[in-house]
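Here is my example:
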Amino acid sequence: MFKRAKAKFLISDTELCLKGLLGLPPDAQKDYANDSLRNSFAGIADAERSSDGGKEANKVHLQLAKDRRHKALSAGASDHSHPEWAAAALVEGWMMANGGVAGREAADTITGLIFGWVHETLSDSEFSAVEKSFGLNS
């Protein structure tokens, strides 16, 4: 029951974050998409290099995302409409979902939502450049 409730919350939160970011001008969206992609890929790359199946890397990157969200709150952000908060919360939710707190189906849904937005916002070459900078292949 807990996983189902957590899954619903994380999916809803992801949708609210994306709604806030979609209201930005295209250049600003591109900056936040690039930032979100870099933060997600950093977590993936560290997890792939780890010897514990990525558990410690996920904890580290989850805490980094939480710290970014708290920094945005300290700067006056109060909800999903604030882009700094929304971008940090987006990565935080992605890290939580892919860390196993909400189940595989929710993690796949959240990943699809976020990466769908990133693919719509960045060109294929921009996406590939970020991917390559972390030594990842699609």
